[in-house]
Amino acid sequence: MKIHAIATLALLGALQPSAVLADKAIFAGGCFWCMEQAFQPQTGVTDVVSGFTGGTLENPVYDGNHDGHYEAIEITYDPKLISYQQLLDLYWVNVDPFDSRGQFCDKGPSYLSAIFVLDDSQRALAEASRQQVVNEFADSTVVTPVLDATRFYPVVEGHQDYYIKNPIRYRYYKAACRRVSRLQDIWGERASH
Hints:
Elements (H helix, E strand, L loop, with lengths): L1 H14 L7 E7 L2 H8 L5 E9 L16 E8 L6 H9 L9 E2 L2 E2 L5 E5 L2 H17 L9 E3 L4 E2 L7 H4 L1 H10 L2 H9 L6
Parallel strand pairs: 6-7
Antiparallel strand pairs: 1-3, 1-6, 2-3, 2-8, 4-5
Helix pairs in contact: 3-4
């Protein structure tokens, strides 16, 4: 009977969705609300969480101390449906890679752009994609770095899915920041809306 129970548990475990089938990507691109909107609807993206990363301060908070951290998103995705390279391609057309003071109307260290890599494979792809941007815009300085991932801290619930829960405020914010027009200036037709 005990062997049957163990075999049944093993079979049930094999039928459960495996966390191994999902991968993660972490990107900073200024306002995490806007970054959520760019990635969440993509086929193969199963979750996008807004939060902070890159700093050493434990438990950073939006309306308080988050010194040293970037506003970022943590993407969970199915690599069978969307690749890390495709996520990188989408990332670049959603940031201003030349702004060393922040992104769009949001200025300051927490609004800087960065790609946070989780392993050597991501690093190789991220650095190659960065070099493509450097080559494409040879007359400009690309300031978006590729950094090692550190602990990711999700922000409080009110900031998750903000663009869905507060569509009027979100659209006003995005328009007032001139995010769309700046992205079109840089990336042309490739710019994500």
